[in-house]
Amino acid sequence: MDYLTFFLALLLMHEESFDKAATLNSEIVSAPGQKVTLMYELQKNWTAQQVTWERVQAQQIDVLSLCNLSQGRNYTSKYLRELWSTCSQGSRTSLLVLPGVLPTDSGIYRCRFESSTGENDTFAIRLTVTDGKSNILFVAGGTVLLLLAILIIPTIFISCRAANNYRSPTSTNGSMDDAGDEIYVNYPTFPRRQKTTV
């Protein structure tokens, strides 16, 4: 039982550290095959020395691009994806371009500016690449079912109400105690003549 508790505590710590590492500032949704440009402009008033673009995942963090601004050199990683990034001395804006994105490119991308004094500014973007499938059939089917329900339910309600109105022609306001009593009508009776038979 102690091993299970320890394992769950490790998972929880790992999940919490992942959430802290990837506080989102923006979100981009794209269709497959599109060129996506992730951009961040430094908000601080200090000069950046290094810019790093990373892809943050629950299991690992992949460094996509490392740009040393003081030397004007850009180092791209051996990430299995073609990408471009900008790197120029004195620049306050950094771009990461992903041409022809795929659903597997969905995830959190983080840009980090670092100064020579140790200060840093971090920006995280969630990229969501849709699978390209349309849910139009489900939307259309749901709309048709909703319209049918809107038409059928009032029709049934109105027809049941109309049937209840014509069911008993006598008033139901009278008491039920009188139901067994005979009703006498006061009208004169005329004597009948007997027919004579011949």
Automatic annotation (TrEMBL):
SUPFAM superfamilies: Immunoglobulin. One of its GO terms (biological process) is positive regulation of natural killer cell cytokine production. Residues 19-130 form the Ig-like domain. The keyword Membrane applies. PROSITE patterns: IG_LIKE. GO terms for molecular function: cell adhesion molecule binding. SMART domains: IG (SM00409). Signal peptide: none annotated. The chain crosses the membrane at residues 136-158. GO terms for cellular component: external side of plasma membrane. InterPro entries: CD226, Ig-like_dom, Ig-like_dom_sf, Ig-like_fold, Ig_sub. It comes from the Eukaryota. Keywords: Membrane, Transmembrane, Transmembrane helix. This is Ig-like domain-containing protein. The lineage of its organism: Eukaryota, Metazoa, Chordata, Craniata, Vertebrata. The gene is Cd226.
